[in-house]
Design brief:
Strand content: 25-35%
Distance between the termini: 21 Å
Number of strands: 18
Structural class: alpha/beta
Shape: globular
Oligomer: single chain
CATH topology of the largest domain: Quinone Oxidoreductase, Chain A, domain 1
CATH class of the largest domain: Alpha Beta
Helix content: 10-25%
Length: 352
């Protein structure tokens, strides 16, 4: 079967990611269906912001390695014991690309995202075979194209779980990519006030405003801290989410933390980056909670229930969809920054 992979073109230690790797189609065998497994014919897999970094060697994987985790598709085969979830052939599904062992220390203490034996099957492929526990049926009326946003939405749900959000909280989101725009929608639904997006791309700011964001700040042409303090009348923000992955943004947004604020770093930052932090100011005099997220775990059912409530109109227009054989062009379009989301069509499925 066809799988979109990162393939080696140069020295993986090169500082320039484009010289380290590129994407191409590699032929891999389809995994055998075990007794508790579900075979899924993949309809769509969207490109995550982390995928180009992985291609460039961010995790040190040995090429060729499969890519993709934001997937939707149709069940084509079930193992003989895959009956607990009530799934059947023909169901439209998404789910968690990570397979947890369920028995290691982290799994049994409720921290499955740190599973010691986690499995991961690439989803930019014609087929995936998942354990039944990973699979979530899409709500009635949700298309496969919309369904591939389930995994990004699960990141938003994970953020909300950790944000210490209260109705009326002042909220700042830094970064207007797909996750940032999803998070803005969720905060608006939860009753955020003076909901603010820090984002230099004017088009993404317009999208955010259409989704209910109250204020947008261009951190390149405006003083983010000064403007944020004006908006919050000198109080700062109760909740700050950093999803741009830009080190300068990581340092700026924390200066806008109110007393007792929660600052959540969700983006993938360079592995060698260290955040300058005055512990007296933030951890003593303000009692700020500084934390982060690492993947989603066991919130996909809740995310699926939210799918019909979300606006993805700006995310997945027809010109943002590429067939699997055009994966190189798809990644180029993603890296151009022109579109909030690029989607790879792995199979043309009847009725979609």
């Amino acid at each position: 079967m066809k799988v979109v992979c990162g393939v080696k073109v140069g020295n993986m230690k090169d500082r320039d990611e484009e010289k380290r790797g590129k994407v191409d189609i590699v032929d891999f065998p389809v995994k055998q269906v075990g007794p508790e497994d579900v075979k899924i014919k993949v309809g769509y897999c969207s490109i995550c912001g982390s995928d180009p970094h992985i291609v460039g060697g961010a995790f040190g994987l040995e090429p060729p390695f499969g890519l993709g985790h934001e997937m939707s598709g149709v069940i084509v085969e079930l193992g003989e014991r895959a009956k607990i979830r009530g799934l059947k052939v023909g169901d439209r599904v998404g789910g968690n690309f990570l397979r947890y062992c369920g028995t290691c220390y982290n799994c049994v203490t409720g921290n499955q995202q740190f599973c010691e034996h986690v499995g991961n099957e690439p989803c930019m492929a014609e087929y995936v075979v998942w354990h039944e526990s990973q699979v979530v049926k899409l709500p009635e009326g949700i298309s496969l194209l919309r369904g591939c946003m389930l995994e990004p939405l699960s990141i938003g749900v994970r953020v909300m779980d950790k944000a210490n959000m209260k109705v009326g909280s002042r909220v700042l989101v830094s970064g207007g990519g797909p996750i940032g725009l999803i998070i803005c929608q969720l905060f608006k639904k939860f009753g955020a006030t003076v909901l603010t997006l820090s984002e230099p791309n004017e088009e993404r700011c317009k999208i955010a405003e259409s989704l209910g964001v109250d204020y947008t700040i261009n951190p390149i042409t405006e003083d983010l801290v000064q403007r944020g303090m004006e908006i919050t009348r000198g109080l700062g923000y109760d909740v700050i989410i950093e999803v741009s992955g830009v080190p300068s943004a990581a340092e700026s947004v924390i200066k806008l933390a109110a007393k007792y604020a929660t600052v959540l770093y969700t983006a993938m930052f360079p592995t060698g980056y260290n955040l300058p932090l005055n512990l007296y100011e933030y951890c003593y005099s303000k009692e700020v909670t500084i934390t982060g997220t690492y993947c989603s775990h066991y919130n996909f059912e809740r995310a699926a229930q939210l799918l019909p409530e979300m606006d993805f109109g700006a995310f997945i227009g027809e010109e943002q969809i590429f067939d699997i054989d055009d994966c190189e062009a798809a990644f180029a379009a993603h890296l151009s920054g022109k579109y909030p989301k690029i989607v790879i069509r792995c199979n043309r499925i009847e009725g979609e």
